Amino acid sequence: MPYEMKEMGLEALVQLWRIPSFVTELYINYDCDFYCSNLFEDLTKLLSKLLITGTEQFNQKPKKGIQFLQEKGLLSDPLDTKQVAQWLRENPRLDKKMIGEYISDRKNMELLDSFVKYYKMSICCHFMYH
């Protein structure tokens, strides 16, 4: 299968994954059937591999990792700084030094602001629920 077709298929999957009821419907209609493969698990593994690849690229060259995730449709294009801040904060595999270097770049001041706001909000919510 040509690379372009794989790329188009992947983009379609990412768009489907964003539909709120898609995962539930997929599980109920396919994964519960004895004669069907476990599509939810297969798709989740594929998306996990993409996230791991994006994380590894970010840990080498942050800009390259962000671009990879945008190309795969896992981060919006143009960048949504709130979305990126959430990914940076919640991804335990990211190198903290690389996060610091990336968000402290003068070109990423809006992202730095979003990251700090997201960080403050997550700390506040943590104390409210614990």
TrEMBL record:
Q: Which SUPFAM superfamilies match?
A: Sec7 domain (SSF48425)
Q: Where is the SEC7 domain?
A: 49-122
Q: Which InterPro entries match?
A: Mon2/Sec7/BIG1-like_HUS, Sec7_dom, Sec7_dom_sf
Where is this protein localized, as stated in its record?
Answer: Golgi apparatus, trans-Golgi network
Could you read off the lineage of the organism from its UniProt record? Eukaryota, Metazoa, Chordata, Craniata, Vertebrata
Q: Please state the protein's primary subcellular location.
A: Golgi
Q: What is this protein called?
A: SEC7 domain-containing protein
Instruction: Report the PROSITE patterns cross-referenced here.
Output: SEC7
